[in-house]
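Quick one:
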Amino acid sequence: MEVKKEINVEDKKSNLSMENRKKLSLTGVIEVLSFDEDKIILNTFLGGLTIKGEKLKMNKLDVQNGEVIIIGCINSYVYSGVEAKKDNRSLLKRLFK
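Output:
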């Protein structure tokens, strides 16, 4: 039986900083739901986060500590108030296709 602990937003820190629309540094990431060169979808402590752009790559991925660095041409990032939905394909299946 899996017990989910409710995460209180005040208990968790989350930061987002962007440099010249080419590098996006994030903390407070819970999981990576999907990614490709045009769109990356993450779950963060503050809700779902969708990042859109061109030639996007994850330069650093440390989900254990909740840190992600994304490089590429970043066109937009949008938070949703709720947890984002998972892609039907798992992350491992897409990595090893």
